[in-house]
Design goal:
Elements (H helix, E strand, L loop, with lengths): L18 H23 L1 H8 L1 H22 L14 H12 L15 H17 L11 H10 L1 H16 L6 H17 L23 H4 L3 E4 L1 H14 L7 E5 L5 H15 L5 E6 L11 H12 L4 H16 L2 E5 L12 H4 L1 H7 L4 E5 H9 L10 H4 L8 E6 L12 H8 L10 E6 L3
Parallel strand pairs: 1-7, 2-3, 2-5, 3-4, 5-6
Antiparallel strand pairs: 6-7
Length: about 450
């Protein structure tokens, strides 16, 4: 048997000047500072709702977060979680695993350990700061930012809902070529919707201001890997081969709330309305995560906001989507695994229940940069390494990543393609200007 090539090193803050270093040094402390500010601003609200207990809880949470910020900025060792939350044992086992890596750097710390791990760990500690301090334990420190992104993207949302409702009027009359064109359009809207990412902008405004459909033509050259044809043929074949007993199922592993989520919901509705899929499962986060990631609350809130909007096509979308959930052709699921530090190649071992669930899918659509980092292990891969190899045996079902590049890892490019862009744009991997629609057929 051929020897399995060793995995490349993890991206980490050890590499000064790297995006990981910049993130840990600047962006993560900024995010923590914003979280602390948010709690400060809500002090009166906590007092009105819970009296002195609310204010005491807010103080304790802030002190916990200030300590966390200090640990991060001074590159202290990563400490075990001390809370009793259901995932704490898994986190602490993962810390032991990091400690015992043969090529590790001794005691895991903020700048020495893998960036993916310490960044996830920070968000888990933010969650602990609140979860351990009732009565404010259910407060989502990122909720305002997510709502603001939604409201500031109103024009783009209206444009998209209007376009989609017009499309539905004659979807039954579209021939295969036209259906394919529409699928490609909505895949691209969902891809570029991923620009609206609040963890990337450290919480600064990143809403979508203009119609997302107008610029698609101009954006095509920036899709570095474009496997939309493969997605299309997979769905068309699944549709042709379906039997009475087998539904075509698509799963969308969600990323950001706000405009991006609306673009994902439109894509999902198109899949059902065009009969390319019979059911869509959405996978969100079980706790507030990476500033703007979608939780169950965000998912339901967004659909309610649309349904009650005073714009005909927005409200039509919201009402229809509410109906899809009631009928069970749309299902929202969250699972603790999505907010663990593990990359996806360990899903079958760490979360066999989730792995068995996604194996039922005909197509897994992974949205966004964090999911891409977890698919590929967030390592310093050569650009031309095949996507399948970087997945490191993670293949529960055919999958496709819709991702705009916002971190230093990218695989599956043509030889020389990455180097060529690098020569003229040193920040191409982190600017959000480039994207991929990258498919892997699985086994």
């Amino acid at each position: 048997m051929a020897a399995v090539p060793a995995l490349p090193v993890s991206l980490s803050g050890r590499f000064k000047g790297s995006f990981a270093y910049f993130t840990i040094k600047d962006r993560l402390p900024q995010i923590l500072t914003r979280v602390i500010d948010t709690l400060h601003r809500h002090k009166n609200e906590f007092f009105e709702e819970h009296g002195e207990k609310g204010v005491e809880a807010e103080k304790r949470a802030i002190s916990f977060l200030s300590k966390l910020r200090n640990e991060l900025q001074t590159d202290k060792p990563v400490t075990p979680l001390e809370d009793e939350l259901p995932d704490a044992a898994l986190w602490n086992q993962y810390l032991d695993y990091q400690r015992n890596l043969p090529n590790g750097n001794g005691e895991p710390s903020w700048f020495q350990s893998p960036w993916l791990y310490v960044e996830c760990y920070m968000y888990r500690r933010i969650h602990a700061a609140l979860a351990q301090n009732p009565p404010i334990d259910n407060f989502d420190v990122f909720k305002e930012g997510k709502a603001q992104n939604f409201f500031e993207s109103q024009e783009a949302i209206i444009a998209l809902c209007t376009y989609f409702q017009e499309l539905l009027k004659n979807i039954k009359d579209l021939d295969e070529k036209q259906l394919q064109e529409e699928l490609f359009k909505l895949l691209q809207v969902s891809l570029w919707g991923n620009k609206c990412d609040l963890s990337f902008s450290a919480g600064e405004d990143s809403s979508q201001k203009s119609s997302p459909l107008q610029s698609l033509e101009n954006m095509v050259p920036y899709i570095l890997v474009n496997d939309m044809e493969k997605v299309w043929s997979l769905l068309v074949n699944a549709k042709k081969n379906r039997t009475e007993r087998s539904n075509v199922r698509v799963d969308i592993i969600l990323d950001n709330a706000g405009f991006e989520l609306v673009s994902d919901l439109v894509l999902a509705d198109f899949l059902l309305s065009s009969k390319l899929a019979d059911e869509v499962y959405f996978h969100g986060k079980s706790i507030p995560w990476y500033v703007s990631d979608t939780t169950k609350h965000d998912f339901n809130w967004t659909i309610k906001q649309l349904g009650s909007a005073n714009h005909m096509w927005m409200s039509r979308c919201g009402i229809n989507w509410e109906g899809n959930l009631k009928k069970g052709v749309w299902v929202f699921r969250d699972h603790m695994f999505w907010t663990l530090p593990h990359d996806f190649s360990s899903m079958s071992e760490v979360a066999p229940d989730l792995y068995a669930e996604v194996q039922k899918s005909n197509l897994l659509l992974f949205k966004g940069d964090l999911n891409y980092r977890k698919l590929t292990g967030d390592r310093k891969w050569e650009y031309s390494v095949p996507f399948h190899q970087a997945l490191n045996k993670f293949n529960p079902a055919p999958l496709c990543s819709l991702r705009t590049l916002k971190s230093d890892t990218q695989v599956g490019l043509k030889p020389g393609q990455g180097e060529q862009i690098q020569a003229s744009e040193s920040d191409w991997m982190v600017s959000g200007k480039y994207g991929v629609v990258q498919f892997d057929a699985g086994l």
